[in-house]
Amino acid sequence: MRPFAYERATDVRSAVAACVAGTADGAGAVYLGGGTNLVDLMRLGVVSPGVLVDITRLPFDEIEETAGGGLLIGAGVRNSDLAAHPLVRRRYPMLAQSVVAGASGQIRNMATVGGNLLQRTRCSYFQDVSKPCNKRVPGSGCPARKGDHRNLAVIGQSEACVATHPSDMAVPLAALGAVVHIAGPGGSRQVPMPGFHRLPGDAPERDTVLEPGDLVTAVEVPPLPFATRSRYRKVRDRASFAFAVVSVAAALDLEDGMVRDCRIALGGVAHIPWRAERAESALRGSPATEAAFAQAAAEELAGTTPLPHNAFKVPLARNVVVRTLLDLVEAP
Amino acid sequence: MNGEGNSGPVFADPITADILLSVNGDERPITVDTRETLLDTLREHLDLIGAKKGCDHGQCGACTVLVDGRRVKSCLTLTVTVDDREITTVEGLAVDGALHPMQAAFVERDAFQCGYCTPGQLCSAVAMVREVADGWPSAVTADVSGPAALDDDEIRERMSGNLCRCGAYVNIVAAIKQVGS
Ligand SMILES: Cc1cc2nc3c(=O)[nH]c(=O)nc-3n(C[C@H](O)[C@H](O)[C@H](O)COP(=O)(O)OP(=O)(O)OC[C@H]3O[C@@H](n4cnc5c(N)ncnc54)[C@H](O)[C@@H]3O)c2cc1C
Ligand code: SF4
Ligand code: FES
Ligand code: FES
């Protein structure tokens, strides 16, 4: 691992300044959250920053209620604390469920909300510095397209990159239209999800809309009363402690057997947490039946472009959407 | 993106930091390379070899220790980040020579074979029982808004970050259940 300087930020302004400054010789600085992804990638040689700016002592480790009945979740909140928070569990069960469906107890104690959103893909070529990879070394090629892509994207991918975003937590956040609060060298701004993450296009090295030095300070979850009827369902290769093959976050607003409103997002299928807007609009005003759910899922998935070894994800995603929605109809 | 790619070593020398590390109640001033993980500091510099290096990638749990009472993976924790935290390793679980109840239960229930994963299992289990007592939900908690019981399914799910190559899982679950109930 390349030697690096360590700076502990005490306020947002000095954190951003330290990150922008980098090192005198031009090596970049990066923020350090729980380190569960970053330290691993540094050890693998995938990233080699000259400075780590530790942001875990910044005062953004609280969850506050917003005026409208939503939540403002500090970027430094640990994943365990997010999942254990009474208001998260009561108002947004799918969010709490997604967090506890990810990683392990130890990792959730370390991982921060900001770091979780910004974790890098688990594509094996990205993590192997002996292999080409457009995301790691732009222009070097994408061996996954003809190689190992079983766990990679089936929708929205590009010629340059077919990686998936691995976060479970980001899936319900996309469904909820959460807003990412950012402090950067040029001031603060807010970016709603799913627009925070980027499709790979011809710049797969950029996972998100963040610019150098941008610090995520909080994630704001808007109020959504019907999200009390919501669920996160994750399909993986073993029962626990594995990334999603496919996952679904869904919330249903039912009235007299009809879908008044709904939110659906998919994980494990794209470079971003995939908001299923087509399925949502197909379902609004339709009967809450298995046939309608299957039809809505089919409309969403009509746009998929799977690769030879991950085509199974398309029927899997359809079935998981239908099952999750049916579970929500049957829920008390 | 910032800092990416292998531009090669620009700094010729390691960068160090002087910190005060509090482990099992002892405060020790040490100088660490900023790159050093807590696991390496404990094992290589403090002669605390209870925490084990299984994978060094956060995948096996053999390196689990407690930081301010919470279980973490010491292989992914940079030592320089925990200088004013309270660290507890398996060596610190026993009090005045008496085994911690979790250690006693592991012995009684035969919850290990080679023992390599055991220090991590113990630290993880001690903290996990507290997480359940604090009402934290897990992926198998049916109603995520309510409390969870410490049944076999919950124990298995909550301990999934600790692998055991010897497959002592059945007895590990029994030992934890004995302590937790
Ligand atoms: C063995 C293992 C299994 C896992 N399984 C799962 C799983 O099943 N599901 C899942 O969703 N995740 C899983 N994870 C990933 C885990 O959730 C992430 O590593 C974690 O959420 C990252 O958070 P962190 O705070 O540790 O981030 P860090 O590692 O500290 O940072 C990650 C990235 O985000 C940047 N960053 C961090 N905070 C900020 C901020 N506030 N503003 C700007 N940039 C920031 C860092 O510079 C870095 O690039 C697993 C990880 C491991 C090691
Ligand atoms: S899919 Fe993306 S991350 Fe994986 S090898 Fe191709 S370019 Fe790299
Ligand atoms: S050595 Fe830390 S998890 Fe395996
Ligand atoms: S007892 Fe041997 S690895 Fe668990």
TrEMBL record, chain A:
InterPro entries: CO_DH_flav_C, CO_DH_flav_C_dom_sf, Diverse_Substr_Oxidored, FAD-bd_PCMH, FAD-bd_PCMH-like_sf, FAD-bd_PCMH_sub1, FAD-bd_PCMH_sub2, Mopterin_DH_FAD-bd. It comes from Planotetraspora silvatica. The keyword Oxidoreductase applies. Coiled coil: none annotated. Residues 1-226 form the FAD-binding PCMH-type domain. GO terms for molecular function: FAD binding; oxidoreductase activity. It comes from the Bacteria. This is Oxidoreductase. Keywords: Oxidoreductase. It holds the Pfam family FAD_binding_5.
Automatic annotation (TrEMBL), chain B:
Keywords: 2Fe-2S, Iron, Iron-sulfur, Metal-binding, Oxidoreductase. One of its GO terms (molecular function) is metal ion binding. Pathway: Alkaloid degradation; nicotine degradation. The keyword Metal-binding applies. It comes from the Bacteria. The keyword Transferase does not apply. Residues 17-93 form the 2Fe-2S ferredoxin-type domain. SUPFAM superfamilies: 2Fe-2S ferredoxin-like, CO dehydrogenase ISP C-domain like. InterPro entries: 2Fe-2S-bd, 2Fe-2S-bd_dom_sf, 2Fe-2S_ferredoxin-like_sf, 2Fe-2S_ferredoxin-type, 2Fe2S_fd_BS, Aldehyde_Oxdr_Iron-Sulfur, Beta-grasp_dom_sf. This is 2Fe-2S ferredoxin-type domain-containing protein. It comes from Planotetraspora silvatica.
